[in-house]
Amino acid sequence: MDLSIGQMARINHISIQTLRLYDKMGLLKPVAVDAGSGYRYYSILQCAKLDLIGSLKQCGLSLKEIGSYFENGNIESLEGELRNTLDQIGTEMRRLSEQKEAVKRTLESFEQYRVAPPAGTITLEYIPRRSIIVLDSGNNYFEEGLEFYEHSLLQLKHALADRNVEHIYYRNPGTIWRKDKVMKREFVSTEVYVRADAERFRPDEITEIPAGMYQCIYCSSFDTEKELACKLLDQVEKNGYTIAGDYLCETIVETPIFEKDERGMFLRLQVPVNVR
């Protein structure tokens, strides 16, 4: 039984315009065309070919590619196209997954910023293990200030870019004040770092910051770090804690609105402590 173009479209849940396009491209020709009216008629047996076209479209093939397959009937060529499409889908899924993680981390940073105590507040916090990448610039950030910090951070970013490491794999920049200097209150800090996804780097490139209890103080300006660091260390002594490692100045969030084009930062100054 022949089906009108409208009937063929309806039973296959596609539009009449789609069938006309398939006819024009040679993908699916009607079995008959009325010489007088020009009406197209189809066989119900052609539904199988429509299903195949739909399946190949869902696989990401263009109508031109589908037409080429119908023309030459080369299944090996079609298989190759589908494998290429599968690879492209895998690449795109990985990209979207990484983008999703970047968005989640940014939202987590904003959430942490939103619930963080006011600048100057001292806390005792458990902080999980972190992986970082460190660069020693030779510049003392306590003396040189924000401009030298920016230069050092750029050095580190350039080094990562040279290894084709995208920004998505590192975050939360900061500086390190080594324990031996902290114990003497010798304000010399020459190392900048970023948090990193350890699986993206060689083990020798990663420094692990152990989990533990940290005495922390929050800071809203790079200029007040030294003053608040002293306040933090005074509190450690007052509590009778012992310093267990290096001091970190960690950027919790880079605020999205900058004043005078400078980096806006909310910092967590922290030092690991033994509380017993």
Describe what this molecule looks like in 3D.
The chain is 44% helix and 24% strand. It has 276 residues and is an alpha+beta fold. The protein has three domains: 2-73, Multidrug-efflux Transporter Regulator, Chain: A, Domain 2, CATH 1.10.1660; 78-115; 118-274, Multidrug-efflux Transporter 1 Regulator Bmrr, Chain A (Alpha-Beta Barrel). Strands 4, 5, 6, 7, 8, 9, 10, 11 and 12 form a nine-stranded antiparallel β-sheet that branches. Strand 2 and strand 3 form a beta hairpin. The chain is rod-shaped, with a radius of gyration of 31 Å. The N and C termini lie far apart (89 Å).
Outline:
The chain is rod-shaped, with a radius of gyration of 31 Å. The protein is about 45% helix and about 25% strand.
Class of secondary structure makeup: alpha+beta
Q: What share of the residues does DSSP label as strand, in percent?
A: 15-25%
Average pLDDT, rounded to a whole number, is: 89
**CATH T-level topology of the largest domain:** Multidrug-efflux Transporter 1 Regulator Bmrr, Chain A
The percent of residues in helical segments reads 40-55%
The low-confidence parts are none
Which CATH architecture of the largest domain is right?
A: Alpha-Beta Barrel
Taken from the alpha-carbon principal axes, the silhouette is rod-shaped
Counted beta strands: 12
Question: Radius of gyration over alpha carbons?
Answer: 31 Å
Number of helical stretches of at least 4 residues: 9
Question: What profile does the largest beta sheet have?
Answer: 9 strands, antiparallel
**N-to-C order of helices and strands:** EHHEEHHHEEHHEHEEEHEEE
CATH superfamily of the largest domain: Regulatory factor, effector binding domain
Number of domains: 3
Determine the N-to-C terminus distance. 89 Å
